Amino acid sequence: MLDSLFRPKSVAVIGASNRRLTIGYRIIQNLLDSGYNGPVYPVHPKAAFIKSIPAYPTILDVPGDVDLVHVVVKSSLVPMVLKDCGKKGVKVAIINTAGFKEVGGDGIKAEEEIVKIAKDAGIRLFGPNCQGIMNSDPEVNAYCNFTFTKLRPGHVSLLAQSGGVGEVINNRLYELDAGIRMYASNGNACDVSIPEIIEYWGNDPGTRVIICHVESLPDPALFLKVAKEVSKKKPILGMKTGRTEAGAKAVGSHTGGLVKQDTTTELIFEEAGVISFSDEEDLCQAAYAISRQPIPKGNRIGIMTNTGGPGIISADELIEAGCELPDLSEKTQARLREVLHAEATISNPVDVIATAGPEHYKATVEALLDDENIDSVLINFITPFFVDCEGVAREIAALAPKAQKPIMAIVMTEKEGWAKTISTFRDAGIPVFDFPETGAKALAAMSNYAVRKSLPDEAPAEFSDVEKDVAAKKIQETLDAKREFVPQKAAIEMLEAYGIGAPKSAEVGTLDEALKAADAIGYPVVLKVESEDVVHKSDSGGVALNLKDKGALEASFKEMEGRFKGARFLVAQFIGDDGIEVLFGAKKEEGLGHMVVFGLGGIFVEVLQDAAFALAPLSKSRAIEIMKKLKGYPLLEGVRGKSPADLDLLADSLCRLSRLVTDNPQITELDLNPVFAFGKGKAPIAVDVRIKVK
Amino acid sequence: MLDSLFRPKSVAVIGASNRRLTIGYRIIQNLLDSGYNGPVYPVHPKAAFIKSIPAYPTILDVPGDVDLVHVVVKSSLVPMVLKDCGKKGVKVAIINTAGFKEVGGDGIKAEEEIVKIAKDAGIRLFGPNCQGIMNSDPEVNAYCNFTFTKLRPGHVSLLAQSGGVGEVINNRLYELDAGIRMYASNGNACDVSIPEIIEYWGNDPGTRVIICHVESLPDPALFLKVAKEVSKKKPILGMKTGRTEAGAKAVGSHTGGLVKQDTTTELIFEEAGVISFSDEEDLCQAAYAISRQPIPKGNRIGIMTNTGGPGIISADELIEAGCELPDLSEKTQARLREVLHAEATISNPVDVIATAGPEHYKATVEALLDDENIDSVLINFITPFFVDCEGVAREIAALAPKAQKPIMAIVMTEKEGWAKTISTFRDAGIPVFDFPETGAKALAAMSNYAVRKSLPDEAPAEFSDVEKDVAAKKIQETLDAKREFVPQKAAIEMLEAYGIGAPKSAEVGTLDEALKAADAIGYPVVLKVESEDVVHKSDSGGVALNLKDKGALEASFKEMEGRFKGARFLVAQFIGDDGIEVLFGAKKEEGLGHMVVFGLGGIFVEVLQDAAFALAPLSKSRAIEIMKKLKGYPLLEGVRGKSPADLDLLADSLCRLSRLVTDNPQITELDLNPVFAFGKGKAPIAVDVRIKVK
Questions:
Q1: Which of A206-210, B135-139, B455-459 has the lowest mean pLDDT?
Q2: Does residue B641 have a pLDDT over 80?
Q3: pLDDT the model gives residue A150
Q4: In 10 A of CB A251, how many CB atoms?
Q5: CB contact under 8 A, B382 and A164
Q6: For A348, which residue in chain B has the nearest alpha carbon?
Q7: Region A128-144: what's the mean pLDDT?
Q8: Beta bridge partner(s), residue B157
Q9: CATH 2.40.10.10 for the B1-128 domain, yes or no
Q10: Strands, sheet with B40-43, edge to edge from the N-terminal-most edge strand
Q11: Multiple choice CATH, A504-574, 3.40.50.920, 3.30.1490.20, 3.30.300.20, 3.40.50.2300
């Protein structure tokens, strides 16, 4: 529990100062300005008072119990200070001081040292090299931070890995009148972590929405687990920055090469139900909207406007963001026809026209709220000087308390002249936006969260027919042989053990064995050299395809036997190419499990890098979901006379593959490329398999 | 010349009123509040005074000359009023009154009537159904409009088809401290048009940047011509709304089907050098930036920051928008190393770290301005409480007057507490942004304009070897025969006349002729039925490909002859498929000329709709530019062992096609699908051709 951090009963500042332009002064000032509900104990070696408050030479001299300390002394003094804190029984220490892990070298050791001291002393650490926290709960009012934004109570809790980004977002939320509930920027995060804070806020009734800015995820699996749970209760808005930094290391397989910069974080956000943003303003506006209105049932929006242009813009934005603008029900249309001006447009968007007065707005918003095809109401309102705009705001505001659906208002006006109109909306809890785009994007974020939340939480597919021990044994044998890649025949047997289609095959050493194997398998066959060194075999003449008869096999065998002295070979059924070429892959992500890749084969993957990702293990609906993300998805539905692929069987195989890697964490990379997908009722077959283990 | 509209020496308001909530009162009020530099004449049948100014019963009673009138009387009175205006010698009339073309039916006739009256009387009309104009030039100060945003002088001129959108943008420019130079929203635009206004502003020295919002372009060719000229002098920022409205009509050809909603307007913007926006806020921020700083030489940005996070965000945005962050020169690095803190990061972005003071900012901005690899400087500045932030602003502001490069400041702060810091930047003409994203996007828009402006203006390709009359004759014959499609053989001859590769071919009626033709052409051949009814021939069994010998041709001919009684046939060389399959197309756009389409053939166009567009006639570099836009462009560079296509010859053929359609406006649709592109030195060949004429 992080109560001692976010709801401290008392705060000490070790390194407090009377010099105004220091962090040790600023924290005291912020605590006093915010009206913190507890004692503040400045600690200073000599001063009797800091900013009019009695100061103490060491933490041990402080008279009362101390929940939380700020440590702002220089880094070399931190260990000693922490030991004293331990003796004092301090619960949490915010280490503002920098000079630890972030500087490398000795800093890393210094950080390990303070982590150990704190652990031994039972102190939780926040930071080091960090800002701190805030909590606007009137029972707490804690501004344990040295930043400048004033504490404005709200329902957004904000966690930022970059203190700078956190401050920018916090300041914007202040300006938007959204405010915050709690704030945290924990710098190096040597102990109290981002997932722990998200979990805590998930249980905080005052937090309606969580913002989380990250530059990297040190423990992605934990983040995923926690965020997935919390996002079921309340929206988490995520932002990852550093998208264009030096790319991920190149790796020697197709699958690896497809995992682009940032794919992992974006994928974790997606799997966890975190709504992803790439723009701080959009993020803040969405948080503002969500913090003020109920979560809608779905993404069907009713728009009203009093001028054409802005109504069109909000419609454009909502549709582009995946929302729906349903037709108005007959009943709604009839109601509106009765009350609105003859020139009004009775459709979605409803254009009440500029001369509409308060009664028209009231009737329209009421009708849209009552329409069962509509989940949220978006109002575009340019304030005409000849209309009683305050009256309009009052009528709509009066509807808000009873409304079970979100109401949002885009109020396009001169803010000084129409201040009362704006505040009337805001006081009723209706978020106010300046632009049609802004309001529409914020509502779209809310609505897309609602849709995502309403999807059934399907468990990953389980298979009772897989032979786990077969696969485990093949991997163990590979490792025992100090090989990196599972031999071809063994790899095929691993697929078969998991029910993934593979060509009939046999490993052979001599021409005689090869011919016998081919007879058993049936022509045409493929001949491949079995070699650790020849990874991309087709590049090195280690593969002969479509050998139609004994003669062809014999010729190829002799030729390869000459080039690859002492090698063993695989003889396998030739599958041909009447299927649709796709690829399956998996790649181990340290600390996260396996990322599964599905792509369209051939030119699609080479030219367009057309691939989609998911974390293993997959549910069947998730497998189908990622297939549908491909640009070339229509190919799977059948074009140019080809019959559609059996998506269900394709998804089944992909789920089986995801189980194979999940069950066997020694697999670091797996490529099935190509896999041929076939029509209804025929399971896909993996023609080439490559399994790397460690 | 629109001087009488935008710089009127006197303004009369016909339909002025003393009732405050009327347009007839509001316009008088706005003229007085703006401090208009000329006489205002209210016209009212009875009142002696309107808002303290002497009023006159009719325009004919006004004592002085009248340049500009507002007409706000009801629509039925407008013709009479305009006739009086003619007698009075009024130059321009802004018809605020609605009820004309926009209501359809009689309104259309009413609009035609007033246009005629005005023309006869030598009056220019602005509107009807419109707001009006503004001009903040201190010599004029005209607020001829009934909207609410106050007139704040600036260098942005703003033209909006939707008055609502215009008002929202104008209000935001006011808030941003950008202000406007001139404003126009001309509603139905029955006379004074958008291109005419853009041309006028192009010649206005006080206008540095033009914003143009459109919902449709009534005269796209004129818009294109004017905008192309003006955008060479100053940036035009365009916004088209209504992107998701009911799609363009489906048309019966591949090419037609590829022309998506909005393609035309976006293409016109692109060809005219108009910078396109889809978000009002982004648009306003870019206009603000451009109106305050010089246009840079290129898109190479130097970033400085005092905290990591925001620096990363602005780098992400700039790179994603196509800008470059060049490495700092050795000299710049040495200069910075000398002055900055040891912990500072000397790269691009430069991180001066939070404790940097005014001297560090000065040195960094100076060094970046001096670096010849850098075109613009973007400053990320979070205001630390322990830094002399006003000093920072003062030092940077002092550099601005001498700087030949844009300087932009993202100032992340609490606006009340740091008001002086912000105003110090602004007073020096340095635009101030709240977010790293915002500043970066605005700078990217400016930089991309600079790059576009610096490109040579290559004239469309001319061909001295084309036989214009051959093509013209074939079209005339087709029209004379009352056919919609040019017959196959004639279409092939049209291509040949323009130097576009086509298979050798002959039109035949009998088997005997077919066999003779095939002998002359050489096997393998293709046999196609020649029929108006069979447009997509391959669907109806009207095409036989790859006929390898006499026997095959004979069999196919007999079979088709039986099915297509009395038809004629085309025997043509079979091209095979060793080339890369692409498609060329052209489609006539009414009032604009022809839109040329280039796409990748086969699955790429079917599944991905991978096509790019340009207006005919094309220059060679434009042809290559659109090829490079394709998702599948790498295919043309050669993948999977195929040799790269000869882009130069491909571009040549596309330019020739663009000449063919430009020279022959009777062509409404043209499809060459597929065209096979070949390697170095071998011209592409159009295998199938379809030319629709009217």
A1: B455-459
A2: no
A3: 92
A4: 15
A5: yes
A6: B245
A7: 97
A8: B210
A9: no
A10: B40-43, B11-14, B68-71, B92-95, B124-126
A11: 3.30.1490.20
